[in-house]
Design goal:
Elements lengths: L6 E3 L6 E3 L3 H11 L3 H10 L6 E5 L4 E5 L2 H6 L8 H25 L6
Parallel strand pairs: 1-3
Antiparallel strand pairs: 2-4, 3-4
Length: 112
């Protein structure tokens, strides 16, 4: 089983919404480990367990695969505007996590 088994590679489906630039997801998972990007999205957006991270080789970007309930009834996802707002929401979640990780590295061991 490879590190990328938590990410599906296939064509975009009906309820998929685009995510932020690939480099944020790749960097975050390189530092924090495989699956952290999806875990953070599930936590911050209160997504159901059916949510998945999908990479489309056709468009060369990541998408968040949602079920019908999360896609249209979860207010944190954004309803009809999710296609345009999700890249920004996901980017902010990931940037915050990367920033938090960088601050933790710079703190002296006795400062806690």
């Amino acid at each position: 089983m490879s590190d990328d088994d938590h990410i599906e590679t296939e064509q975009v489906a009906r309820y998929d919404v685009p995510l932020c630039p690939n480099r944020l997801i790749v960097a975050l998972e390189a530092v924090r480990g495989p699956g952290i990007a999806l875990a953070l999205l599930r936590e911050h957006l209160q997504l159901r367990e059916t949510a998945k991270l999908v990479f489309s080789s056709y468009s060369d970007c990541f998408f968040l695969r949602l079920d019908e309930i999360d896609r249209f009834q979860n207010r944190r996802v954004g309803g009809l505007e999710a296609v345009t707002t999700m890249p920004f929401k996901a980017g902010e979640i990931f940037k915050h996590e990367i920033f938090k990780e960088e601050i933790a590295k710079k703190m002296p061991p006795d400062a806690g």
